[in-house]
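User: Design a sequence. Structure:
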């Protein structure tokens, strides 16, 4: 992740003679009022200087030295910011610091310096969270140094966070130091978390991912829908997911239809077999003890096949007829019987009356087989 940068001003005593002035000291340096608050100290070394020198070489426009940082204050007070000098070439001097070596003073500034109307130069620079100087912005003549540092170097007022590009930050910088603002850094961290991106993603990475997100919310023709309200859209999606989750079949509570159908078929077959066995046992028992007549066997089996409970109810109320499965004489023809083998005795006649059949039919059904 790109580090946010901050702006500070540094002051060094100057002379109008010569074209070289010290901008920044070598090593670590701080202000006596406790700044910087964003890091332990400001830092300047040869590696940092090499980057600053390369940036200065690539510039088309030289750096400006104004009066009392009016370049920073012009947006607030509306006053012009005339130049006191210009420079473009930087040079690193080991153990000493970073210098501007081609300073061109205006006649007015030169005379004011000679008259001691201005005695200090205050370069304005940006730095990262570790305190490393990242760029030289411009400089100013000032009489309000804040700290004796190395040699004649003085640190002056103002250390503020820049939240966009260097030019935008400088144009918007207030005259008074605002409270520390970590908006840029926090915003990037939150976006990286929100987009589920790896730690260390750069601003360019985040921007590319956001562009993909915008494209996914487009109207289908490559144009992002201006009316899309992302929080409302997310809430709608969340509600749809909740609805689908509520209607989702729980595999722990339900089985596939094919499995259920097969189990039901097996159960029906088992029930049919059990019912058939039960009906057969009921009919056989009823025939053996006289609760059913042989002529009723087919009817009883059909009833049991369709409604075994009703068959049980009928058989529970039917009275056994002893004459249908035994004789009163133990199989011996009674004395004085004149009716022959097919004669019906008194108990048989009673059965015929109870069942509503003729004595002839009863005699035929109960006669022994030839």
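Assistant: Done.
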């Amino acid at each position: 992740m790109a580090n946010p940068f901050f702006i500070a001003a540094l002051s060094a005593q100057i002379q109008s003679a010569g074209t070289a002035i010290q901008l920044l000291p070598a090593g670590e340096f701080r202000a006596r009022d406790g700044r910087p608050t964003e890091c332990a100290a400001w830092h300047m070394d040869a590696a940092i200087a090499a980057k600053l020198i390369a940036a200065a070489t690539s510039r088309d426009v030289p750096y400006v030295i104004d009066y009392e940082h009016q370049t920073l204050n012009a947006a607030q007070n509306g006053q012009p910011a005339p130049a006191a000098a210009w420079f473009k070439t930087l040079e690193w001097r080991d153990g000493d610091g970073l210098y501007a070596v081609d300073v061109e003073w205006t006649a007015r500034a030169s005379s004011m310096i000679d008259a001691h109307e201005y005695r200090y130069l205050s370069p304005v620079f940006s730095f990262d969270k570790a305190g490393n100087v990242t760029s030289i912005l411009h400089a100013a003549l000032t009489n309000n140094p804040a700290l004796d540092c190395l040699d004649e170097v003085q640190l002056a007022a103002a250390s503020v966070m820049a939240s966009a590009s260097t030019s935008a930050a400088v144009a918007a910088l207030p005259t008074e130091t605002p409270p520390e603002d970590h908006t840029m850094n926090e915003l990037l961290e939150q976006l990286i978390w929100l987009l589920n991106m790896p730690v260390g993603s750069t601003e360019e990475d985040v921007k590319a991912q956001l562009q993909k997100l915008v494209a996914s919310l487009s109207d289908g023709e490559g144009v992002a829908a201006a009316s899309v309200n992302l929080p409302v859209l997310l809430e709608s999606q969340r509600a749809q997911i909740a609805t689908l989750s509520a209607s989702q079949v729980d595999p722990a509570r339900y089985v596939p239809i094919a499995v259920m159908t097969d189990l039901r078929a097996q159960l029906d077959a088992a029930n049919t077999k059990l019912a058939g066995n039960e009906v057969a046992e009921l009919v056989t028992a009823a025939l053996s003890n006289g609760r059913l007549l042989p002529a009723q066997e087919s009817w009883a089996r059909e009833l049991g096949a369709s409604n075994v409970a009703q068959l049980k109810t009928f058989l529970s109320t039917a009275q056994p007829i002893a004459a249908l499965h035994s004789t009163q004489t133990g199989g011996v023809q009674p004395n004085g019987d004149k009716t022959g083998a097919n004669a019906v005795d008194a108990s048989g006649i009673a059965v015929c009356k109870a069942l509503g059949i003729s004595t002839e039919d009863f005699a035929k059904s109960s006669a022994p087989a030839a």
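The chain has three domains: 5-175, 255-320, 321-333+340-370. The first strand starts at residue 5 and ends at 13.
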